[in-house]
């Protein structure tokens, strides 16, 4: 007899779904292995007993439909670009074309082993070689490596190369200059690569002034790490002059290219004096972010730095493409194999679909959308830098503060209206930042609706601030206790029994 | 032409209205902050735009052939259940960003929490992060973490770990802070040489890095090594390439590992020419605050309902900035999801059976090889699903000739170990049918012992 245990809830389509470990039962099966066509052996015939395990305690036992429903329900609690507008600043959440997904699943790419002989993977090598060339053209650089697995990995690669450059000349430059409008990873990257960081304050116009850089620049500075356009969405208009100052003391200009979506076909970073720049294929070049990766962070460099690129590099010779490992001045390897090829392939497909004119149009419409959004919200939210922006704009909660409503409340209220919130509390140079990046794939109507919603929320902040403070309400879970999560970390399911996994 | 407009919805009328609202005349006016001399006057030199059908045709021209193969070495062909790709293709998962806004990211967050649990169970450790870039960078981060914990300079690295991982560790460490000492493998056995290792151990050693199974497919005895390094106050870092092995092998945690860092590609992630893969990173609870990478924790919402959030961010780059434990930010979230789905399907008994099948098939191939003249199994130690074969002749040539027989017979070891210049690593998984293995053995026989023809000079 089934008895009601008080756990049945009428949540409609927002279904409750227990953890995978809290379902199924002994003997239930969700897999299908190939037939045993060789003799089934016992492990202990070959491997000493003390190196063998007894079992996999706690591992799930489910049938296929259990698994399918579990992850389908989980997916329904998520919000992706395909669900709606995702104005997450500096993350360039543009539409991820479906044809690129199909391309990545083509058997002649997806099933290829990385150690297949070069003669059998010429098409793949050509694809990578060509993409390197296209990215060099877009950024105005000489050489590109596709090896880094993400933006921060590209940064680390670049800063290690700069270090190798100076060490090769017997110099020990240990300082890096990082503006306060650069991305958060820049500081930690310079620390991981063993540099001491000096922060450069941006000026009242939200950009770096050459004078501030000149004050800090000396022969112990290896590089300045700028983000252009910066995290306020502003173009670093003095960059060429700053580059000259840095170059005059023998330093390099590293650019975080996460915000390249404003500049494709408009200006080349190389022309502005940048010596190396990493790109985020999972931002500018439309590859999906996957809910936290995989990304891809190619690094483009000027000739002078090419010898230090990670190995292997792809070379084109008579008769075909090949990997070259023999690069004595290289920093070495940053990962196994050659980079996140599945991501690289999607970006290649995107680039060919867009062509030069498509990419330029993308940058133009991205900047048009951001400025349009900025104009639409100007009266309702405080705009700390009131000047034309590039691909993103930054507002703050200053007007809402007097109603005791914060940026966090505004962000959470947006969820009730069916939007993904903007990036919040970043950049740090403005208090209570709301950083919005609409990207070019959003239509005018879509942005109009978002503006309208934001205006409604600003009104609610005055008239009924609790609506914001209590938000979100129409979701799977309400605001979560992050303090408790950090104070008493529970990072895995432990079930009822003691953990006993030998 | 202009098919790219399918990704950009603006009509000319939209653009006109928007420009008007902004108060500028032309789109170009929006870029006035860029000094005029730096604005491009010519279009970029790029191919395209291509229509969707043409793009597909072009890509089909670049696809690689896929002969049956016996390749491994850190990337393995395993069956990926249809469920994995179908569920991971749900765009609510794959078109989402990192779950910064927990209330609308519970799907990703719960899945990562489940992933963390599975990784703890698989490796026998107490905490797992949400993933790293790949096995190699994960292992390198483990070496950096051991240094943060112990502040000791030396790292003993087994020569039998994946040679590319070794290179990545070399790149990651700061030579002024850390120094790598290579520990050789025992010539006849292919296992890390414990005697040399023990002799090299002292109070300056922060960690010992051993991979299990190692690059030769050999099962290492982590327990003995862990005991010795702990006696000197150092840490045991266990790496791995082939996660399926842990369906039968005792977990590194149970054998005394302090940090486990390896590659999860085998858990439902396509080969995809080397990436994206899945870096796994687990450790003991006491080291939690020294860990790199994202962590998901369980908590409750204001109504007391269970929910999940990114937590312990105080270790991370966006809070600690230059004092962060790592600069990693975007990791391999979707690959972690795929591994979670894979393990949910394969389950407790499936993983064990799969591992046994890999072992059994590799042993079958080993046996077949042992009957062939001109080659022998190089190492006497137990192996999992790959083994080293010593061949009479240049491996490059032998592999090339096997290729004309229609298969890729293994991996030439000499490119990684100059001294192993007559050696192949042969990998056999559940995907290699008996028929295929028999064909492999026949091809090997034919290449090593060509049938005498009236024209051949023999030998």
Large-scale geometry of chain A: globular
Can you count the beta strands of chain A?
A: 12
* H/E element order of chain B: HHHHHEHEHEHEHEEEEEHHEEHEEH
CATH architecture of the largest domain in chain B: 3-Layer(aba) Sandwich
Mind explaining what this structure looks like?
The complex is a heterodimer of chains A (502) and B (459). By secondary structure, chain A is α/β, with parallel strands linked by helices. Chain A has three domains: 20-76, no CATH class; 99-353, Type I PLP-dependent aspartate aminotransferase-like (Major domain) (Aspartate Aminotransferase, domain 2), CATH 3.40.640; 357-486, Aspartate Aminotransferase, domain 1. Chain A is built from 14 helices and twelve strands. Chain A has a seven-stranded mixed β-sheet with strand order 1-7-6-5-4-2-3, sandwiched between helices. A three-stranded antiparallel β-sheet of chain A has the order 10-12-11, covered by helices on one side. Chain A has a two-stranded antiparallel ribbon with strand order 8-9. The longest helix of chain A has 37 residues, at 341-377. Mean pLDDT of chain A is 95; it is low at 497-502. Chain B is of the alpha/beta class and 459 residues long. Chain B contains 13 helices and 13 strands. Chain B has helices at residues 12-22, 52-60, 82-88, 91-94, 106-123, 135-150, 163-172, 194-200, 222-231, 317-320, 333-370, 395-404, 434-448, and strands at 127-128, 154-158, 179-183, 205-211, 235-240, 259-263, 279-283, 295-300, 306-311, 375-377, 386-391, 411-412, 423-427. In chain B, the strands form three sheets. In chain B, strands 1-7-6-5-4-2-3 form a seven-stranded mixed β-sheet, sandwiched between helices. A four-stranded antiparallel β-sheet of chain B has the order 10-11-13-12, covered by helices on one side. Chain B has a two-stranded antiparallel sheet with strand order 8-9. In chain B, helix 6 (135-150) packs across helix 7 (163-172). Chain B is globular. The N and C termini of chain B lie far apart (63 Å). The mean pLDDT of chain B is 95.
């Amino acid at each position: 007899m089934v008895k009601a245990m008080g756990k049945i809830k009428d949540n409609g389509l927002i279904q409750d779904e227990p953890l995978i470990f809290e379902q199924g039962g002994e003997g239930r099966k969700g897999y299908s292995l190939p037939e045993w066509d060789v003799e089934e052996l016992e492990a202990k015939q070959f491997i000493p007993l003390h190196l063998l395990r007894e079992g996999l305690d706690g591992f799930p036992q489910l049938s296929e439909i259990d698994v399918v429903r579990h992850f389908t329900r989980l997916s329904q609690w998520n919000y992706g670009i395909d669900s709606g507008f995702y104005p997450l600043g500096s993350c360039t959440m543009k539409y991820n074309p479906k044809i690129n997904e199909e391309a990545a699943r083509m058997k002649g790419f997806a099933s290829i082993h990385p150690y297949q002989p070069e003669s059998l993977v010429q098409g793949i090598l050509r694809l990578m070689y060509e993409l390197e060339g296209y990215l060099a053209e877009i950024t105005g650089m000489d050489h590109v490596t596709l090896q880094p697995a993400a933006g921060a990995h590209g940064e680390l690669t670049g800063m290690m190369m700069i270090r190798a450059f100076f060490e090769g000349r017997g110099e020990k430059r240990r300082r890096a200059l990082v503006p306060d409008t650069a991305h958060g990873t820049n500081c930690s990257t310079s620390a991981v690569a063993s540099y001491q960081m000096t922060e450069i304050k941006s000026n009242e116009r939200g950009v770096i002034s050459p004078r501030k850089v000149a004050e800090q620049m000396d022969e112990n500075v290896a590089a300045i790490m700028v983000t252009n356009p910066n995290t306020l969405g502003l173009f670093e208009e003095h960059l060429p002059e700053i580059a000259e100052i840095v170059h005059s003391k023998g330093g390099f200009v590293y650019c975080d290219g996460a915000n390249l979506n404003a500049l494709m076909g408009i200006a080349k970073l190389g022309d502005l004096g940048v010596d190396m720049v990493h790109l985020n294929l999972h931002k500018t070049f439309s590859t999906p972010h996957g809910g936290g990766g995989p990304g891809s962070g190619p690094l483009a460099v000027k000739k002078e730095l090419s010898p230090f690129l990670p190995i292997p590099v792809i070379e084109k010779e008579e008769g075909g493409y090949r990997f070259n490992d023999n690069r004595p001045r290289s920093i070495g390897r940053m990962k196994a194999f050659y980079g996140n090829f599945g991501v690289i392939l999607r970006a290649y497909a995107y680039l060919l679909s867009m062509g030069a004119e498509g990419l330029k149009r993308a940058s133009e419409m991205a900047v048009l959308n951001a400025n349009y959004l900025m104009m639409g919200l100007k009266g309702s939210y405080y705009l700390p830098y009131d000047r034309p922006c590039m691909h993103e704009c930054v507002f703050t909660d200053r007007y809402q503060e007097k109603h005791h409503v914060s940026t966090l409340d505004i962000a959470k209220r947006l969820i009730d209206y069916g939007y993904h919130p903007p990036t919040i509390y970043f950049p740090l140079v403005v208090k209570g930042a709301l950083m919005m990046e609409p990207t070019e794939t959003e239509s005018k109507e879509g942005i109009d609706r978002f503006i309208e919603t934001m205006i409604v929320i600003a009104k609610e902040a005055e008239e009924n601030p609790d609506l914001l403070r209590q938000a979100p309400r129409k979701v799977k879970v309400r605001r979560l206790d992050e303090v408790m999560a950090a104070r008493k970390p529970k990072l895995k399911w432990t079930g009822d029994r003691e953990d006993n996994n030998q | 032409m202009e098919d790219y407009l399918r990704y950009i919805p603006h009509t000319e009328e939209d653009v006109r209205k928007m420009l008007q609202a902004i108060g500028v005349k032309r789109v170009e006016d929006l870029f006035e902050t860029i000094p005029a001399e730096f604005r491009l006057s010519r279009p970029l030199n790029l191919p395209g735009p291509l229509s969707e059908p043409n793009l597909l045709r072009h890509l089909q021209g670049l696809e690689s052939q896929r002969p049956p193969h016996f390749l491994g070495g850190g990337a393995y062909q395993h069956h990926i259940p249809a469920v994995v790709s179908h569920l991971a293709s749900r765009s609510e998962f794959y078109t989402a960003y990192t779950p910064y806004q927990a209330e609308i990211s519970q799907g990703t967050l719960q899945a990562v929490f489940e992933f963390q649990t599975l990784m703890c169970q698989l490796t026998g450790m107490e905490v797992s992060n949400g993933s790293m870039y790949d096995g190699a960078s994960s292992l390198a981060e483990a070496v950096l973490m051991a240094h943060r914990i112990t502040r000791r300079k030396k790292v003993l690295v087994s020569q039998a770990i994946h040679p590319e991982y070794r290179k990545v560790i070399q790149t990651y460490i700061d030579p002024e802070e850390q120094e790598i000492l290579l520990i050789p493998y025992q010539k006849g056995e292919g296992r890390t040489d414990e005697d040399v290792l023990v002799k090299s151990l002292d109070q300056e050693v922060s960690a010992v890095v051993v991979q299990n199974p190692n690059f030769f497919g050999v099962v290492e005895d982590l327990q003995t090594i862990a005991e010795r390094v702990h006696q000197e106050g150092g840490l045991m870092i266990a790496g791995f390439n082939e996660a399926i092995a842990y369906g039968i092998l005792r977990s590194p945690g149970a054998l005394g590992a302090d940090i486990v860092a390896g590659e999860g590609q085998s858990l439902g992630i396509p080969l995809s020419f080397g990436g994206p893969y899945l870096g796994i990173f687990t450790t003991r609870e006491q080291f939690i605050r020294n860990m790199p990478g994202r962590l998901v924790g369980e908590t409750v919402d204001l109504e007391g309902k269970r929910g999940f959030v990114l937590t312990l961010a105080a270790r991370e780059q966006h809070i600690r900035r230059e004092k962060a434990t790592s600069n990693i930010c975007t990791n391999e979230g979707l690959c972690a999801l795929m591994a979670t789905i894979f393990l949910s399907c394969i389950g407790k008994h499936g993983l064990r059976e799969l591992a046994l099948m890999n072992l059994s098939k590799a042993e079958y191939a080993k046996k077949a090889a042992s009957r062939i003249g001109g080659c022998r199994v190089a190492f006497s130690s137990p192996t999992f699903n790959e083994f080293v074969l010593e061949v009479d002749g240049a491996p490059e040539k032998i592999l090339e000739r096997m290729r004309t027989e229609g298969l890729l017979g293994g991996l030439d070891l000499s490119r990684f170990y100059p001294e192993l210049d007559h050696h192949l690593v042969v990998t056999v998984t559940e995907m290699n049918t008996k028929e295929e293995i028999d064909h492999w053995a026949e091809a090997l026989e034919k290449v090593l012992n060509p049938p005498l023809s009236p024209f051949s000079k023999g030998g």
